Design the sequence.
């Protein structure tokens, strides 16, 4: 044992070499030559991880020796210049670092000065975080947490790295990893496009179930004032008041695709095989963003920032798809006016058709196939630019049937929806210009960014936790995570070790 300890002191990698030798001996020994492959696989994986951990430990020990030799050879003035006036050298300071190959111990020297916090030059040289977990563990925590629950993320990390992090720590690491998203996108310059390529923006909102203390004040007060019919469940029309609205935005490029109404909606009786419908514009270079912490105007401004970066001189055609929400529409128009950009607002056709389906149930039985033809006729008329005529026809039909009560209310709502958005339903112009007329991109984003992760059964979110996951899922969906992570690592180093003098202090092995 004494010879081994001397060897380990002489060679920081001696333990790694010994572990590897033992692993090879075990795998080649007679005891494992008859066992099933899955058992050998587990032994090799566990042993390989331990070899990797010892290699990392040996590297850190080697750097610790070189740091001690480097600082010991400097006089007080040189140490003061390196560490902002700290001159007293103290050896043998240790800290643990949880890494993707297991937990290691980092040994480094402290430079001290009376009444001041210690300075650790090796922390800056190694780029160590303040907390125990390495940037590699943090990156793995983000990639696993954006995919599934924190429980499954913690289990996945444990399977890969051993017991290096707990569930609450994963939550903390994810929140810490999201702090540079806004700065990252503010610094990026998108790839420019030709002037004839459409620039499309779309905004939507979706609720997230929050912890009681993280609801917006108006929602919390409304929930407190609401009268409940039952003690144990909600009655029809009652809301729980548990959600906080997140605002999502999408920006993308699309080449114009000219179409006609029957390319969009099948005529009564269905399509024939004579003519194939022409496809609509295809979204390219999609960029998603969202926030549950900030108000809608913040997200809308961020979407316009992205669009402005893609078309700084406003040479392209800007198309904005909306769902008819008046508050969002007002914010969009105000932002466009503030920036001096001309936008073309188009009401999402899918929302129009949903209103028509609600009206059709007032004239047809639930299983009546004629309802589909009724929808096709009205939609084709709206697509041809005659939305007011379609609304007048629906009202006249309701008068003929002498509809009253809820049935008449549903009809009036559909017609009023068309009347309120009369400036945004000129689909004939949109189709002739090749614009998109449906907001499938932002609807898909709402499902992917929020429903698939933040709407997991039983989830209750804090604002910081939901905001971090929402922004990081957007980064991953945009395909920007590898670039963002490099940006974040650099920004984190600047925050933790500002002004670190690396020019004359190298500890690399």
Sequence:
């Amino acid at each position: 044992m004494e010879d081994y300890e001397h060897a380990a002191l002489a060679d920081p990698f001696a333990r790694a070499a010994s572990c590897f030798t033992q692993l090879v001996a075990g795998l080649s020994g007679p005891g494992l030559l008859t066992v099933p492959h899955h058992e050998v696989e587990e032994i090799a994986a566990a042993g390989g991880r331990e070899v990797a951990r010892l290699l990392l430990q040996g590297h850190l020990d080697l750097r610790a020796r070189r740091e001690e030799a480097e600082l010991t050879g400097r006089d007080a003035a040189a140490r003061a210049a390196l560490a902002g006036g700290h001159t007293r050298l103290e050896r043998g300071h240790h800290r643990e670092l949880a890494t993707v190959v297991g937990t290691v111990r980092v040994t480094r020297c402290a430079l001290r000065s009376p009444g001041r916090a210690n300075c650790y030059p090796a922390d800056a040289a190694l780029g160590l975080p303040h907390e125990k977990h390495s940037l590699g563990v943090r990156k793995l925590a983000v990639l696993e947490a954006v995919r599934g629950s924190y429980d499954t993320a913690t289990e996945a990390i444990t399977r890969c790295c051993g017991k290096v992090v707990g569930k609450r720590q994963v939550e903390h690491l994810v929140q810490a990893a999201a702090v540079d998203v806004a700065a990252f996108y503010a610094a990026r310059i998108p790839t420019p496009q030709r002037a004839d390529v459409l620039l499309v923006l779309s905004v939507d909102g979706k609720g997230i179930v929050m912890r009681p203390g993280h609801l917006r004040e108006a929602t919390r007060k409304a929930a407190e004032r609401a009268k409940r019919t039952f003690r144990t469940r909600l009655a029809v029309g009652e809301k729980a008041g548990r959600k906080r609205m997140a605002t999502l935005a999408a920006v993308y490029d699309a080449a114009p695709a000219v179409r006609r109404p029957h390319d969009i909606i099948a005529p009564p009786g269905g399509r024939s095989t004579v003519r194939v419908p022409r496809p609509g514009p295809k979204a390219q270079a999609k960029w998603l963003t969202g926030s549950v912490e900030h108000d809608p105007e913040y997200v809308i401004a961020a979407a316009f920032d992205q669009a402005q970066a893609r078309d700084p001189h406003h040479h392209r055609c800007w198309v904005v798809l909306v769902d008819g929400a008046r508050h969002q529409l007002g914010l969009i128009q105000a932002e466009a006016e503030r920036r001096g950009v001309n936008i073309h607002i188009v009401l999402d056709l899918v929302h129009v058709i949903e209103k028509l389906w609600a009206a059709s149930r007032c004239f047809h039985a639930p299983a009546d196939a004629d309802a589909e033809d009724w929808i096709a006729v009205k939609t084709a008329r709206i697509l041809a630019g005659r939305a007011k005529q379609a609304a007048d026809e629906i009202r006249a039909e309701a008068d003929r049937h002498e509809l009253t009560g809820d049935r008449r209310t549903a009809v009036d709502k559909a017609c009023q929806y068309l009347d309120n958005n009369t400036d945004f339903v000129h689909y004939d112009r949109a189709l002739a210009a090749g614009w998109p007329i449906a907001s499938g991109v932002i609807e898909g984003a709402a499902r992917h960014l929020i429903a698939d992760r933040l709407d997991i059964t039983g989830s209750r979110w804090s604002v910081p936790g939901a905001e971090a996951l929402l922004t990081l899922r957007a980064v991953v969906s945009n395909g920007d995570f590898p670039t963002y992570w490099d940006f974040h690592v650099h920004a984190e180093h600047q925050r933790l070790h500002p002004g670190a003098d690396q020019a004359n202090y190298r500890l690399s092995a």
Summary: The longest strand covers residues 88-99. The chain has two domains: 2-128, 190-450. Confidence is low (pLDDT under 50) at residues 1-7, 501-509.
